[in-house]
UniProtKB/TrEMBL annotation:
Keyword flag Membrane: no
Keywords: DNA-binding, Transcription, Transcription regulation
Superkingdom, taxonomy of origin: Bacteria
SMART domains xref list: FCD, HTH_GNTR
Name listed for the protein in its UniProt record: HTH-type transcriptional repressor RspR
Organism taxonomic ancestry: Bacteria, Pseudomonadati, Pseudomonadota, Betaproteobacteria, Burkholderiales
Keyword set includes tRNA-binding: no
Length: 243
């Protein structure tokens, strides 16, 4: 069966249905990105096209188109004759990328304190309280989505498009690691405390304080991620020795 038949689009259809194809494309990219962030598709994993097509209810054409987008974002690796696999960052890449992200977050915080509106601040506070409710329910995906939205809103409030574009590109590469860094309760609660301090600094329009909190917050994430990375490497080496 042709892809157009599977998506319900005939060859004689007017231009409007192309929007449906674009929505499908965006939806597939969004789902795959979510699978990577939440660890359903783990670093280094080779992707099974047939299984993913069945899971998402799509043909291979939109799946492969989505692979290209995620490869451009640095989330997938496309290899001739081997297909797609989830990109696995090295120890040095993790260290350097989180260091860079800490600077981008800090600069966002400084500018946001100068430029944020009362409405934007109120929306961020509402997201913060929703995030706390997710933490109380041990809802990590719900917590993480609101957590990331708070960081995004602070970045948007900085009103610097060059910063925004760089921030988005770098953040996509480490979102899955930021998600997993909250799986230990003590680190999760520490992150919640940091967010409470962020809100206070935003309310006070204290750019220096917010920049410091955000920088420390990201560097602590870096340390947590590196600890998990090294533990995984140690366990993998042990498994190879026992094999």
């Amino acid at each position: 069966m042709q892809d157009s038949e599977e998506m319900g689009v005939s060859s004689s259809a007017p231009a409007l249905p192309r929007l449906e194809r674009q929505r499908l494309h965006d939806t597939v990219v969004e789902h795959l990105r979510k699978f990577i962030v939440e660890g359903v598709l783990a670093p280094g994993m080779r992707l099974n096209e047939r299984e993913l097509c069945e899971t998402l209810g799509i043909s291979r054409t939109p799946l492969r188109e989505a692979f290209k987008v995620l490869a451009a974002e640095g989330l997938l690796v496309l290899s001739p004759n081997r297909g797609a696999s989830v990109y696995r960052m090295s120890e040095s890449e993790i260290r350097e990328t989180f260091e860079l992200m800490s600077g981008l977050e800090a600069f966002s915080g400084e500018l946001a304190c100068e430029r944020i509106t009362p409405v934007e601040l109120a929306e961020i506070k509402a997201l913060h309280y929703a995030m706390l409710a997710c933490r109380a329910q041990n809802d990590l995906p719900g917590y993480y989505s609101r957590n990331q939205e708070i960081h995004n809103r602070i970045n948007e409030a900085a009103r610097n498009s060059a910063l925004r574009n760089t921030y988005d590109a770098i953040n996509r590469r480490i979102m899955s690691m930021r998600f997993r860094s909250n799986q230990h309760v003590d680190k999760w609660d520490r992150a919640v405390h940091d967010h409470e301090e962020m809100i206070k600094a935003l309310e006070a329009r204290d750019g220096k304080a917010l920049a410091g909190i955000l920088r420390r917050h990201l560097l602590e994430k870096r340390d947590a991620v590196l600890q998990m990375y090294l533990e995984a490497e140690h366990n993998a080496q042990g498994a190879r020795k026992r094999a």
